[in-house]
Design a protein that fits this description.
By secondary structure, the chain is α+β, with helices and mostly antiparallel strands. The chain folds into two domains: 292 residues, Zn peptidases (Aminopeptidase); 129 residues, Alpha-Beta Plaits. 36% of the residues lie in helices and 21% in strands. The chain has twelve helices and 20 strands. The strands form five sheets. Strands 1-2-7-3-8-17 form a six-stranded mixed β-sheet, sandwiched between helices. Strands 10, 11, 12, 13 and 14 form a five-stranded antiparallel β-sheet that branches. Helix 2 runs antiparallel to helix 5 and helix 10 crosses helix 12. It is elongated, with a radius of gyration of 23 Å. The mean pLDDT is 97.
Length: 430
C-alpha cells in the first residue's frame, strides 16, 4: 500500500496522540538501573512489552563462546554475563512486499557518575522544561521507545509494515557491542537497519573506531616514611609517569586525519581519555598496585592490530625512560571495545527514505554529520553488508550528570521514524 497523504496524516496524528503513553513508557525504562551486570530485569520488562503488542519474542542470554570467534567481537575480562540478556521482537507481515528492517537500540547505561550531584536521583525520571531527565533518558532508552511507538502509531492508524521488522533490545553497547554481535550470530538480518542514537535529527555519515586499554602496574610497597632506608616504587606514580606518553597519541592520530576522505575536516575526531585510575590500600604505604584504564578513539579504516602495536610501543617507550618500569613493565590488556569505524556511503536508498521522512516532518532537507563517537551501526554495515542509519533525538549531557532528552525533538523524530518505516517497509492493512 502506497503512503498517500491520508495515510501519512493518520500516522502522524497517531504518533501525536500516543506521545504521552510513549513518555510514560520511556520513564518506566529509565526507572530500571540497567548498568552493566544489572540488565536482566530491564530486559524482562522489554520482553513483556513486546509480547503485549503481539510480536514474536526471542529472549536469550548471551554466551561469549558463541561469538568470540566472530568479526567484531570485543574481548571481556573478569566480566560475568549471567545478567546479559538480549530481546528481539519480530513483526511479520501478511505478505512480504516491502523491505525488511532492523530497529536496534541498547538498554544498557553507564553508571550515574556521582548520584548525589544529580538534581533528582538518576533512575527517577523527571520531566521539566521540555526535557526528560534521568540516566539513559537520552542515551538511549528514549530512542528505542521511539522506534517501538512509531510502529504502534502505524498500527493505530490502521496499517502495519508490509515487511518483516526486528526490534532489537540489546546490552553491552556501552562497553563492547557484543549484544548486537549476538543478534548477528543468532541469524537476524534485514535489508536495512535503524539505530536511534540521540545525536540529533541528522544522518550520521561516519563514526570512529574505539579501543579500550588496561595497564596493571606493580610497585614495590614499603613504609611511606622511608624510615627503614627503602622508599620502594609507587605504582600510582608509575602510572602517572606512563600517562603522558599514551595521551600524546591523541595529537599524533588526529594529525592523520589530513589524509582521510571523511574525517579530514573534522576538528578533533580522536580522543584519548583516562577513564579510570586506581591503586593503593593504605595512605602510609607505598602503593603495591595501580590500574589505569584508557579509551582511545581510532580513525575509520585504521588496522586495529597495528594500533595495538603502536600502543605497546608507546608504553615500552615510557618504561624505557624509568629505571624501575624498565625492569618491571606493566601488564597490557586490551579488553572491552575493539571496534572498527564505519561509514554510511552517500546515495543509499535507506538514506533517501529517511531524508523524505525528515523533510516531511521538519520542512527542510536532512543534513549529514560525522562523529567522534561509536555506535552499534557498525555491525550491520561492516559484517552484514546492510546499510545502517543512525538518526535520533537530541540528548544533553550523555554520560554526565543530569542527562536528558529534548521532548520536542523526541516527538518529531518519532514522527520521522513512523514515516520512514512506512516508506521503507511499505504498508498493508492491519
Amino acid at each position: 500500500m502506497a503512503l498517500d497523504e491520508t495515510a501519512r496524516q493518520r500516522i502522524l496524528a497517531a504518533v501525536d496522540s500516543g506521545f504521552e503513553a510513549q513518555l510514560a513508557f520511556t520513564a518506566d525504562m529509565v526507572r530500571h538501573d540497567s548498568t552493566r551486570g544489572n540488565e536482566a530485569a530491564m530486559q524482562d520488562f522489554m520482553a513483556r512489552a513486546f509480547r503485549e503488542r503481539g510480536f514474536e519474542v526471542d529472549h536469550w542470554r548471551i554466551e561469549v563462546d558463541d561469538i568470540r570467534d566472530l568479526p567484531g567481537f570485543s574481548p571481556v575480562v573478569d566480566v560475568d554475563y549471567a545478567q546479559a540478556f538480549n530481546v528481539v521482537a519480530t513483526h511479520r507481515p501478511k505478505a512480504e512486499k516491502g523491505r525488511s528492517l532492523i530497529v536496534n537500540g541498547h538498554i544498557d547505561v553507564v553508571p550515574p557518575c556521582d548520584a548525589a550531584r544529580w538534581t533528582t536521583p538518576p533512575f527517577e525520571p523527571r520531566i521539566e522544561g521540555g526535557r526528560m531527565y534521568g540516566r539513559g533518558a537520552g542515551d538511549m532508552k528514549s530512542g528505542l521507545a521511539a522506534g517501538i511507538f512509531a510502529i504502534d502509531a502505524i498500527r493505530a492508524a490502521g496499517f502495519q509494515p508490509a515487511a518483516t521488522v526486528h526490534i532489537q533490545s540489546v546490552v553491552e553497547e556501552e562497553c563492547t557491542g557484543n549484544g548486537t554481535l549476538a543478534c548477528l550470530q543468532r541469524g537476524y538480518k534485514a535489508d536495512g537497519a535503524l539505530v536511534p542514537e540521540p545525536f540529533g535529527a541528522s544522518i550520521m555519515r561516519a563514526e570512529v573506531g574505539l579501543m579500550w586499554l588496561c595497564l596493571d602496574i606493580e610497585g614495590d610497597p614499603q613504609h611511606a616514611s622511608a624510615a627503614f632506608n627503602n622508599v620502594g616504587a609507587n605504582a600510582l606514580e608509575k602510572a602517572i609517569h606512563i600517562w603522558p606518553y599514551i595521551k600524546r597519541l591523541e595529537e599524533e592520530w588526529n594529525a592523520r586525519k589530513a589524509g582521510h576522505p571523511i574525517y579530514k575536516d573534522h576538528p578533533h575526531p580522536i580522543r584519548v581519555n583516562l577513564g579510570k585510575l586506581s591503586g593503593g590500600d593504605w595512605v602510609s604505604s607505598v602503593p603495591a598496585k595501580a590500574r589505569m584504564e584508557v579509551r582511545l578513539g581510532v580513525l575509520e579504516g585504521e588496522d586495529l592490530a597495528a594500533i595495538r602495536d603502536e600502543i605497546r610501543a608507546r608504553v615500552a617507550e615510557a618504561c624505557a625512560a624509568d629505571p624501575y618500569l624498565a625492569a618491571h613493565p606493566p601488564k597490557i590488556t586490551f579488553h572491552g571495545f575493539q571496534a572498527e569505524g564505519y561509514v554510511l556511503q552517500p546515495g543509499s536508498e535507506i538514506e533517501a527514505a529517511m531524508g523524505r521522512a525528515h523533510e516531511e516532518v521538519f520542512g527542510e532537507k536532512v543534513t549529514a554529520t560525522i562523529s567522534s563517537a561509536v555506535t552499534d551501526a557498525r555491525f550491520f554495515g561492516l559484517y552484514q553488508d546492510t546499510p545502517s542509519i543512525v538518526y535520533g533525538a537530541t540528548c544533553g549531557l550523555p554520560h554526565g550528570i543530569d542527562e536528558y532528552v529534548e521532548l520536542d525533538s523526541l516527538l518529531n523524530v518519532t514522527r520521522a521514524y513512523a514515516l520512514f518505516i512506512a516508506d521503507w517497509c511499505g504498508l498493508e492493512p492491519a
